[in-house]
Amino acid sequence: xxxxTQRFDVVIVGGGHNALVAAAYLGRAGLDTVxxxxxxxxxxxxxxxxxxxxxxxxxSRYSYLVSLLPDQIxxxxxxxxxxxxxxxxxxxxxxxxxxxxxxxxxRPEGSATRxxxxxxxxxxxxxxxxxxxxxxxxxxxxxxxxxxxxxxxxTADLAKRCGPIWGDVVERPIGEVVExxxxxxxxxxxxxxxxxxxxxxxxxxxxxxxxxxxLYHLIGNGSGEWRVPVGGMGAVTDALAVAAxxxxxxLRTAATVTSIETDGRTAEVAYHDGVRxxxxxxxxxxxxxxxxxxxxxxxxxxxxxxxxxxxxxNLLVDRLPRLRSGADPEVAFAGTFHxxxxxxxxxRAYDEASAGDLPTxxxxxxxxxxxxxxxxxxxxxxxxxxxxxxxxxxxxPARLFADDDGGRKDEAVRRSIALVDTYLDEPLGDRLxxxxxxxxxxxxxxxxxxxxxxxxxxxxIFHGDLAWPWVDDPGLLDSPTAAWGVATDDPNVLLCGxxxxxxxxxxxxxxxxxxxxxxxxxxx
Length: 524
Hints:
Shape: globular
Helix content: 25-40%
Number of strands: 18
Largest sheet: 7 strands, mixed
């Protein structure tokens, strides 16, 4: 160990939201903790930014909604957050037999939702099935959600408590369940999309990767509701940074970690601040970076390289566009606006992408966060009727943009917007605001862009494939780090990011689990 090496109890590599959660818990427990973040600011993918010069609008550039962050973590850390419900759960524009319509799902569901199902499908049956299915999923969520803040539960114990819905969600491909329960392709597609967010899989994938994604999107806080943070995603990580600093954590930005050396008992972490090299030492290292990145830092070959599969487009419009269906835009765009996500469309897009082609009709979802949170717009901009819009495209794997000179990315954006336009009474491009240089207010992020900006391998938003939040073999729970799902091959290096067993999405779970595993270890 070099003479000028600083010593801490814990070094956390990466400064995303999970790292900040861990730092806050550990600091509160009295551990001397330092966080090393490569970027000029903490927050990782959960940040707000003003991407368009001269336009006063704060966009959630990467992560955009909060679903899995437990209320208990918010209370534990005293976070000052305002997470608001969207008054519309989803709206799906539909054109059938030359007629424009749409499927509306309210929050909470009421008569308009029932009538919308009936108008689309011709009977009450599909809505009754919807209510029955999601009622059962809700019961599963109330069982599973509390376990997310505890050591890993055992599969058999949970299965007994969840009833028949367990088999549908956990034991067979979600496609079988969707096809056996629902008859309408639009309804089927709306159900399936929760299984495909950031996940390149089919409805019938035997790995059940799509089922794991479905579960995570529907169990947050026992309700699965996706909420809008007032002030944008940056408000979430700003609050976490405040909590971490208040707990005594040292947050260092512009600190690029270059290596981690450990003998299993103590570790040295080297980093560069853009001017000179530094070394910090600690008994424990927590990793908020992807497991593939961690492997390289400790000198091992990564087990595999993740591949992201999404296209993110951020836009600013002078007003919400009119819909051909005649639906009120302030209702339709207040929730998830599904486009090209009928059941056959999702399979077709997957097949095309698997063959190396851009989807002909790219499936995706639009969100208007400023309808729920106008504070992200400057006062003058909000008064003018302007709004933010966020598009999240599915089945856009990184392989489609390999060695791209920008042409494929531009074509992917063009196709995505063109499909949205088929349901609008006016082109979305005509509504785009222009920045102070006269450029249209639109930006797009492929998986490669996400990797370049955030260091996520392959641009994978979950750092890799999601895992079930439980364990089959109780023998695997022989230590606190294993029991919390944060262990690595090095005993004193723990996962605290989305790559932890119950990581993924903006949840704070990876940070919570690593902190609790470490504290339990120190007490034992």
